Amino acid sequence: MELFFKYLQFEKRFSPHTLLSYQTDLGQFSEYLAAIYQIIDPAEADHAIIRSWIVSLVQKDLDARTVNRKIACLRSYYKFLLRENRISKNPTLRIKPPKTSKKLPSFIPEASFNSFLDSFAFTSDFEGIRDKLLLEFLYGTGIRLAELIGVAEEDLNMFSKTVRVTGKGNKERIIPINDSLFATLLAYLQKKKVEFPDNHTPKLLVTNKAHPLYPKLVYRIVKKYISLVTTSEKASPHVLRHSFATHLLNKGADLNAIKDLLGHTSLAATQVYTHNSIEKLKSIFDKAHPKA
Fold it and tell me: In the beta sheet, which residues pair with residue 157?
C-alpha cells in the first residue's frame, strides 16, 4: 500500500486531499477484509468480495458520490497491483458504480454579490482588507481553496495583472486579474507590508499573526460574508468558484476559455455550468414571451 500511495503522490501527482481520501478508503477496505473474510492482503480479494464491500456501503446509505470515489480508489489500486505483477487479473473490472443524481452547481446571483462587494463597509484594518481580497480573489479568478492558500507573492505579475496558479497534478495556469481585484490587491500588499514589516512568509494571504491561511479559516471568512448575501446553506469557497464560471457563461464567455481558467482537464467537467445558463434562459423566456 505504501508503494501505491507513493505512486499516486509522485507519479500521478495527486493532491494531498485526494491522497488522504484514498488512504482512508483503502484502510476501510482492509479493515472490512480482515473483519469479514480474515484476509490480511487486499491482493487476495476477488470480484465477489469487493462487490460485497460495495453493497455494504450502499446499505449504510452512503452518498453515491462517496461510494464511487471508493470504487475509483480500488480500481486504481488493483490496476497498480496488476502493473507490479502482484495479481494476474483486475477484480474490479466488472464492478458497476451506483448512479449519481446530477446536481446543478450552487451559485450566488451576480447582481446581489457584486453590489455587496461594492457597497459593504469592510473594516480598514488588516483583517478587513484581507477578507475583502480573499472574497474578490475567489470570485474574480475562480480558483480552488487549496490553490488560493498556495498562491505566493512571487506568483503575482503586477505588470501584466496576472497570477500563476498551481492546480491539481501540479499543473500551472495563468489567470488574469480584473481591475477591482487589482485595486484591492494593491491596498492589501501595502497594508501587509506596514502590519508585518519582518514577515518572511512567502504566501500572499496570511492570518492576523502572519501565518499562512488554513482551510477552516477560509471557510469561516467566506461563510461570514456570503450569509449576508444569500440564504443558501452552501456558503463555501467553492460556491464562489461556481459563481465565477456561471456569471462568465451568462455574459457570453467561451466554454473552452472557462475550462482553461478553472483548470479543468476536460470540457465535460465545465459543461455542468451550461445547465445553470439554460435555466436562466428559460426564466427570461417565461417572463418575456407572450405565449409563455
Answer: 162
7 is catalytic: no
Is 144 a catalytic site residue? Answer: yes
- Topology of the domain comprising 2-83: DNA polymerase; domain 1 (1.10.150)
Check residue 277 and give its pLDDT.
64
Catalytic choice (70, 130, 132, 144): 144
Please spell the DSSP secondary structure of 109-154, one letter per residue. Answer: -HHHHHHHHHH----SSHHHHHHHHHHHHHHHH---HHHHHH-BGG
The gap between the terminal CA atoms of the chain, to the nearest Å, is 59
Selecting among 192, 241, 247, 259, the annotated active-site residue is: 241
Give phi and psi for 79, each to the nearest 5: -65, -40
Assess whether 273 carries a catalytic annotation. Answer: yes
Q: Is 22 a catalytic residue?
A: no
Catalytic-residue membership of 69: no
User: Does pTM surpass 0.85?
Assistant: no
Q: What is the DSSP letter of 210?
A: S
Asked if 275 is an active-site residue, the reply is no
pLDDT on residue 292: 63
Catalytic residue among 47, 79, 168, 275: 168
Q: For residue 135, report the phi and psi dihedrals to the nearest 5 degrees.
A: -65, -45
Domain spanning 110-287: which CATH class is it, in words?
Answer: mainly alpha
